[in-house]
Structure formats: structure tokens, C-alpha cells
Amino acid sequence: MNSSRLKSSRYLVFLTIGVSGFTMLMYFHLATEVTHLRNVMHSHAALGSILRGVPPVDNVLDLDNLVIIYNRVPKTGSTSFIGLAYDLCAKNKFNVLHINTTKNMPTLSLTDQMRFVYNVSNWLEKKPGIYHGHIAYLDFNRFGVSRQPLYINIIRKPLDRLVSYYYFIRYGDDLRPYLIRKKMGDKMTLDECVALEHADCSVNHVWLQVPFFCGHHSDCWIPGSNWALEQAKFNLVHNYFLVGVTEELKDFVALLEYSLPRFFKGALNLYNTGSKSHLRKTVKKILPSEETVAKLQNTKVMRLEEEFYNFALNHFHYLRKKTLVDVEGSDLILDRGQNFGYEKIKPRKNPLEAS
Questions:
Q1: For residue range 186-214, what is the model confidence (pLDDT) as tens digits?
Q2: Residue among 36, 44, 134, 216 flagged as catalytic
Q3: 134 is catalytic
Q4: pTM
Q5: Of the candidates 31, 97, 156, 349, which lies 20 to 30 Å from 13 by C-alpha distance?
């Protein structure tokens, strides 16, 4: 009796394993076929558009397939800002995805770069979407992608960012006060750190915003590199849709709402009335002495970081002046509206339709 039961049990186990294996094989087969079908349909649609004289889909600005990458710099108010996106995503029908890198490394290996570009470009179910994480700028053109994501970012006065980071890793913040930080219990002030020339306040901790915008080239991460500064400026102007500053976060939100309402409609009101405008604060910060400030500002790394910040700030102010207008007597900020139009349009009919 026991022998027959044992045989039956073994039979059921093998049968279950076989059915499970078959089911998994069928799932992967169907997933592959669906992906292939999508590619075929996309190719046929593109070919049909070309034959009809309509630009291919990849050359059209399709807001429902747009991807935004927010490669957030640490300690610049990024948690407060991305909270707005999470609050708006269901209402405005877009996706938000956090990029979690191993040990918070801001640069990726070449194979991970390819994986990331492939995922962002082909994950159709997550379009439109905002990807955010502490990751350096990555040029999608290098990988042969026809449709580029929109990059946005926020930067902060370099000294303020350093002070915030230094005390954050010692005292944490009011968002997750229970979390043990890596320097918890260390009472050394920033003044003492600088006086001792300790590693915790070395130029490596100052050199961050420039390399985040410079990207994945090795020279980007050499503290004080003039080439990295110029590359960061180039990327900011040519490859970023908008870069704001922590000190003027409200204006950054307003610019995004009026220029990208598909994602950010309602963000300004949420920022003004909700709790997101001051979501995260370092529990304890001690302002540095004038002597410490002078010593830090006398380093080449700090001078280059400040030059980059001022460059970004001037460009941000230029865009703000061209785009927004303050309503006198209130704190309202409005879009200046469209200031261009089309005229003298000839021929009146599409040449293809006329024939």
C-alpha cells in the first residue's frame, strides 16, 4: 500500500513539474511572438506613413510615448520634487519608475548602459513615463536610438549642497528619522572636518554636479577637470529640456507644468497647497564658519562647481523670463502664452491630395 502511494506521489510531482515547465515555455514563446508582432506592425505603419508622405512615427513628437529622465543629483530637493510626480501620475496617466543602482553608483557599466537604453526605449507599457535616480547623464545617441528621452534636473548652490550632505549622513532627515545613516553618531562638525583636511569633506564630495551632467566618460569624474566642466555646460544647453535650481523650485515646477502639461498639469497648485514643498529636511545642520567657507571656495573644484551652478542659474532665469509672468498683487505665476503664428501657407491643399 505504501509503495503504491509513494509511486503516485512521485508521479504527481513529475506531472506538476512537467506542466509548470510547459507553461513557462509557452509564456516565453508567446511573449516573444507578441514583441515580434509589435515590431512588424510598427514597421508596416512606418512604411505606410512614408508611402503616404507622412513622417514616420519616430520623427513625430508623440506625448503619449514620451520618456523623461530625471537624473537627480543628491541633496538638491529631488525627493520633494519627485513626490509631485508620484502624486500626479494616476490622475495624468503616466508612469513613474525609480532607477536603483547598486551601492548608489552614478555610472553604469557598458553592458548596463545598453540594457538601460534598451529598457527605456522598448518598454512600451511604461510610456509615457518618468525615470528618476542618482545616475549620470547618458547619451542615447551613442546606442543608435532614434527617439531621445527628455532630460530634466535640479542643481543647488555647491556649498549648501555639501553642508546638507555632510550633516545628512550623520543625522538623517525628518522623512525617515528611524533610518541609521552611515556616519550616525559622528559628531565632527564641517568646520572641524575642513580644519583636519578629513576625507569626509574632501574635494571628491564637492565634485558632483559637474560630473552628473558631464556623463559616463572617465574624465568627467576627475575632480577639477576643465574638460568635464565644458562638457557639462554643453550637455545642459543641448541635451536637457530644463534644469532648475533648488532655491527657486516653485518656478521650476511652473515651467514644467506650462511646457509639459501632459505630465505636470496641476503640479504648481499641488506644490503651493500640499505638503510636498518641504517634504524632506536634514534633522541638524551647523552652518560653516567664514574661515571654512573661504578655505573651501579657494579650491579649484569648488570654483568650477560654482561656475557651473551660475551658468545653469543664468540660463534658468533666461527661460523663466521668456516663459512666465508674475501676476501683480498675488503669488500666481502664469504662462505668457503663444507668441508666434503661421501665415502665407501655400499651397492650400496637400499636393498628394490634389493629385
A1: 789 999 999 999 999 898 899 999 999 99
A2: 134
A3: yes
A4: 0.81
A5: 31
